[in-house]
Every structure is written in structure tokens, then in C-alpha cells.
């Protein structure tokens, strides 16, 4: 038994000594570093290249000149591209939301055998490299393909379908994550007050979900408006986005001025969407706090009961279930299965020849390196990019998750938060292009980063940082500040609190962040296509080169290489999901 | 309490919160002075938002003190960071570390102090014994019930032998039966370990059960500090009495001095500025024997009767000295029917005499530090 025998803990500090000294110097230095390192990274590798590029649109021969805008906007081609970009983004977003909300319901609100597997399947498209998706849809829709009779190859519809394929997951996971945590009793109360299930959904559940839907829609819109690889592969010469047009103007027509102007247009669109997104996200975080932790899913019930007790298709889960089944089977699974099957066919017979050819450089030397070399390049570069993204993104998440006591500090934290969202929206092509025009002599230093082989991983890290922040930050923010206070009162110094509370709790999300960052840089195509030298091509670049060259052999290799890239990405994401543990849903 | 004396001294402490853009800062604690002697348990009692938790957090070092001083054994704690104060803190919802086992939680503070492994294990076992959770060391905290979590939180806070234990509504999240049981266990654990403690609560039963002395707070100020019996017998002001559940305040001059149920006691001097506070059990329903009305009894009409284990609780409209008021009285026998006319009498044991102030605006009464 504990008696009075033991002496109370002595004061670790003599109370008379002013112990203020422990605080400032070391801590301020460390936090300062945690702010300065990511900021420096963002300025040098994002702000500077992008702003230089923007400047090229405004400045000609050393003075301000808006003539570039006049020129660019006087051509019908520019207007057509802007129209196409907005059109496909609107259609892609609308379709993703319309299909995704029933999907969120079936996959996150209903309980049925096999749900976990389908949830995992639905996640796959989001992390698939854009080039792979483009190739998969093309091999499905091309004349002679399984769906060739629809004559959709090279059409606007094909692009929109591929965009929905990509972004369906975003809607399902964002909306589903909230829906799973929504307290079902509000809807039950509405039902008890006499509302039909549809009316209860429309008047109670839908308004509660609205912030999540709006936030998902704005992110999907962003992804659609900046789509690059998919559009480049599927759209051919006829269809394009601002993003592909920047690429074409730069690499085909060598018209840097028009490309810069288009980059500015792109920035304006993205900034507007990001503004809406951050507004809705703030609302969503408020809405989430109303959610309960109780398991609120219920058994899937296909049929409703009519007033006379007969089975009825209304009121049950039949409609959302059928919609989701069609989307999963037709839109998501078919292109992938078809890609795999076609990669294993040569001249109408089963064969591994396409895979054997991956050790070569393609017909008539389509590539400078073998596909396996390109694969190794991709993995190596992705490892470096992930490490950079993890350090920068982890620091940002750590800083942004603090809640300073003073208002100035709180505002600074909020600013930093939105600053690091920018790369998510600014097109990868703009970043890659910006690197090209600025980083030959970074900050006037006589180092050409372009030949150092570091540019590609750095560009990919810029793209991956927001993903890391968005994955880790919600977890760090969800840690009750009183948990840290409890550790402090038990004698833990600030560093120890960080080490024993924040880090272990964020560790799981760190696994997922690694997965996202690695998958994103494995599949990164926009910036890499500018920066990778032919002798150091990555896998997506090699695939794009292969489908651009004539020859059945090259096309078969592209299919096989796409399967390899898809498998690689899937393995990485599966491993990351394992680390993630039980948590359902989430930001992306 | 001596100034340099043992234990905690809080003097004229002010805590302010930044309320946001272009708003004046909110003053949560407004010049509070208190003392807690070593080995003593003090309860900070008050309605939610009265500043009691802010005061506790200021003592712990979690909120900056805008003015005033917090000292321990005469040493100023200004600028001493939270983790160097040697004060334990226990939250309403435990705040256990979800990624550690029960033992991992309890030994956290010991690891910080680099206590050797064997000593650590013994201390953890000892404390789990104190809180009645022997053998729970390897359990995951997610598998514990609410009451078990609070017990683990208590063991964790006690493990490093804090100079002072701060408890922020430690029992409020629990249901009634468990709360009463844990309040007793908490008192025993504090006594056994000889821990000095400050205990924040909004529940006066809880405060009376656990604390040696109670400080009643309202709107950032301390209204009274006293032992539970003293507080109950002689609330310093009408505000304190109202918070404790006194239901009516009648001018003392309106009572017949010769009456049988004249409340009094040592402070029962009756002046024009005094009033009688009628406690929750301060009225009795008299059997209506038809005799003439005795002094200090008032007619009343029964509104409702509710059976309680300790007697029948009768709600009535009492035509008392301050007009008709709806009050609660205790009846000894059968529950009277609604509408019945009865008489009620004061029960001196359930009443107190307080100074008579304006009912709406309550000036705080400075207290001895």
C-alpha cells in the first residue's frame, strides 16, 4: 500500500531560479528551422519557377507587355482549348459526383460481404498513373477493341469517361468518410416524424453531407481541369486542355510566350477553385465535429417495403446498389481487365512476348533505354522524391497542426497551410516547364541542376508534398491538445511530447503518406516529361514514347509496361493500406 | 495560511483569453487568491464558465497568468514550464495515450524521470492496486470502460508523486452510481498517498465528498472558501447559497422570534439586512390537524408529490413572507394529493442565514488567501 512514507517528488528546479531560460533559444531555433526548410523548398522549387514563367507572359524585352495575352486570346484555338478544359472539367465533376454519392452510400454506409475488397478496388484508379489509364481506355475503345463498336476512340466522351474513372474514388472516399461517421439518429428522427426515406435523405442527410460533397467536387474539378496524361493519350490532336496545350506550345511549336500566357490562365482557374475548396474544407471540418464515432453502418437491404407490404424497388438500397455495381464493373474493372488481357495477347493468341520485349528498347529503337531500365529509374527517382516529400510535408504538417496562442501565430499557421496546398492545383506541366527556364543556374549559383539528375525527383516531390500534408495533417489535428498537456504535466519536455505523443499517433498516417507520395511520383508524367533526359526516362515517359511510335510491337510493349507500372503502384498502395490500419475514409 | 507557507498560494491571479479579432479579451479568472496547504484537498466549485478550469490550467502552467502570482512553498512559478512544475493533472475524460497499454500509461511519468525498470514495474503495480485495477497492466486502453479509464488516469497522474495533483472534473463524464463510488475511491487514494490536490467540479455533492475545503467560484471570482459543513451552514452570500441549492430567501425580520422553528445558530443575529435561506430540505409539510396556525408556518397548496427513498418530496405554492413561491418541501407520511391545502414549517437544520443583497447583482466577497 502507498503510505505517507514516500516523499513527494522534489521540485526539479529550485523554485527561486527563473526557469524561463529553458524555453526560447533551442525551441525557437528548432521551430524556426521547421518553418524555414519547407518554405525555402517551396520558394526555390515552386514559387520561383512558376513566377518566372508567369513573368514571361507579362514581360517582353525587359518591360511590361500584355501583348502576349492579346495575341493568345485572338486565336480561336486558345478559346477552344479554354472551352474544352472547362467543359470536360464540368462534365467530369458532375458525373463523378452523381455516381460517387450512391457509391459512398453503398461502400461506406451499408454492410455487406465483400465490401472491403470492393472498397480497395475502387481506390486503385486514383493512384494509377495517368498514362496507364490513358492506355487502358484506348485499348478498350480503339477500333477492333472490345468496345470499338461504340466509336468512342479519340472523342470528348472518352476523355470524360476516363476522368470519371480517376475521380470516382475521390468522391466516394471523401463523402463516404463523412457519411460513415454521420450520426444516423438525425435521419431516424426525420423518419419518425413521418418523412419518407427519400425525403429524409434529401432534407437531413444531404445537407449534412453538402460540405463533403462540395469539397470533393472542387478537388475533382481541379484534377479534371489540370488533367494531362490522360488527355494527351486519349485526345490526340483534336482535344486538349490548357495543360496539354502548354506542353504542345512548348515542345512542338517552341512558343514559350503563348505557353506562359496559358500558364497564367491556368493559375487563375486553379486559384479560384482552391479558394472555393478551402472555404468548403473549413466548413467540413466544422461539420465533422458533429459526427459520432458510433458504428453507423447497417446491413444492405436491396428491397424496400411498399405500403401493402410487397417488395418495392423504392425505399430499399436497390437503386444505389445497381448504380455502384455498374460503375465498378463497367467503368472501373473492365478497362483494367482488358488492359491485362490485351497485354497478354499477340496476334490473337495468348503470349508473354510483350513482357519478354520489355528487356529491349522497342521496335526500331523507339526508346533510348530498355523498359526495365526505365522501371528501375522510376523506382530510384520515386524513392528520392518520397524522402524529400516526407521531410518537407512532414515538417509542414507538424507546424500547421500547432495552435498558437497568439492571433498572429494562428494566422501565420493558416497562411502556411494554404501555401502548401498550391502545388496540388498548379499544373505539373507548369512546374516542369518552370524548372526548365529557371533552374539552369538556381539563384545565380553555377550549378546546373538539370544535369545533376536531381530535378526530376525534386519536381515529383513538389507534386507529392500536398498529398503528404493532407494525409498526415488531419491525424495530427485530431490529437486532443489535452493529450499533449497530460504528457507535459507528467514531466515530459516539449521534445519528448512530440516524440512520445505526436509521432507514434501520426505514424500510421505516415505509412499512407509514404504510399501516396511514392505512387504519385511513380506515375508522375506532367513535369517528368519536360525534365527527364531520354537516357534516364521513367516508366510513364517510356510508355508514352512507345504508344507514340508506330508498330504493333511497340504498342504491345506499352500495354505490358502499363501493367507493370499499375502492378508496382498497386503493391505500394496495398503495403501502405496495411500500415494504415482500421481507419476508413479520409481526405482523399 | 502563512505567506511563505507550505503548499500552493495563488495571489490576485488574472487569466485572460484572446477572444478574436477586434474583440476585447475575455477575463476568465478575475483576481483570485487562494491557498492550499500540503496534504489538503481543495475543491473549486462553480457553474460551468465560472473560470474554475482556467484557474486550474493557470496553476498547471497551461495558461499564462496575466497578473498576480502562483507560488509553491514560497517559490514563484512564473516562467516555470509545465513539465518542470511537478504538478500532476487529470482530465475529465482521462486523456489516456491510446497507443500505450495501461501499464505504459501509468509508467509514462516514471520513464520521463528515468526510474529504473524494476522500480517502475513495482510502482505501476502499486498504483494499479491503489485504484483497484490489479492485473490490468497489459490491457489496451481501448478495451477499458469509462470508469476504468478514469482510474488509470488517476494512477498515471499519481505515479510520479506530484507535489500537487490537479483534477479537472475527473468524475463528470461518468454515470451517477459510478461517480459516487469513484468519488469515495478518489478521496481514499488521495488520503493514502498524502497528495495535495485541487479538484474542479460543478457538482456540490462531489465537492463535499472529496474535498477538505471548498472554494465557490462565480464569474471569475472566488465567493467563499470554507469546509463543507461550514459552507453549508453559513453561505457567505446569497449567490453562494443559490448555487448550493437554497431555494428561497426570506427576510429574517419577517419571522416570529418566538416561533418554534426559528433558524439561528451562532451567526443567526437578525437584522434588517439578513435573510433566511431555505435549503432544499429546509421546509417540512405539517400534518393538517386542524389546530390553530402556529408561528412561523405558512399555508400552501400542493402541486405535485414525488416519492423519493428519503421521504416524499412535495412541490407546493407557498404563501410565504415573500409572496407566493413555488417551493419544495419534505413530507413525513403519505404523499398529499395535488390541490390539497397544507401548512409548511421551516426546518432549522436545512436553513441558513445570509446577508441580504440585491438579488440580481451580486458583488463578490473578498476571501482570505
Characterization of this structure:
The complex is a heterodimer of chains A (588) and B (369). Chain A has helices at 24-58, 67-74, 76-109, 115-127, 130-141, 156-181, 184-192, 197-225, 229-235, 242-251, 256-288, 318-343, 353-356, 371-400, 407-419, 422-425, 428-438, 455-478, 481-489, 494-523, 526-531, 539-548, 552-580, and strands at residues 59-60, 63-64, 110-111, 298-299, 304-305, 311-312, 345-346, 349-350. Chain A is globular and about 70 Å long. In chain A, α6 crosses α8 (197-225) and α17 crosses α18. The model of chain A is unreliable at 1-23, 287-294 and 582-588 (pLDDT under 50). Chain A is mainly alpha-helical and 588 residues long. Chain B has 369 residues and is an alpha+beta fold. Chain B is 22% helix and 31% strand. In chain B, strands 6-7-8-3-9-10 form a six-stranded mixed β-sheet, with helices on both faces. Chains A and B meet through α19 and α20 of A and β5, β6, α3 and α4 of B.
- For this structure, what is the CATH class of the largest domain in chain B? Alpha Beta
**What is the molecular shape of chain A?**
globular
- Strand percentage of chain B lies at 25-35%
The overall pLDDT of chain B, averaged over residues, is: 83
What name is given to the CATH topology of the largest domain in chain B?
Answer: Rossmann fold
Helix/strand class of chain A: mainly alpha
Helical coverage of chain B, percent range: 10-25%
Give the total of beta strands of chain B: 18
Placed side by side, the strands forming the largest sheet of chain A appear as 1-2
Give the structural class of chain B: alpha+beta
Task: Output the number of helix runs of chain A.
Answer: 23
Largest interface: A-B, 41 and 52 residues
Please describe the biggest sheet of chain B, giving its number of strands, its sense, and whether it closes into a barrel: 6 strands, mixed
Radius of gyration of chain B: 24 Å
**The CATH homologous superfamily of the largest domain in chain B:** P-loop containing nucleotide triphosphate hydrolases
Number of strands of chain A: 8
Domain ABC transporter (chain B): 8-244
Protein name (chain B): ABC-type quaternary amine transporter
Region (Disordered) (chain B): 254-282
EC number (chain B): 7.6.2.9
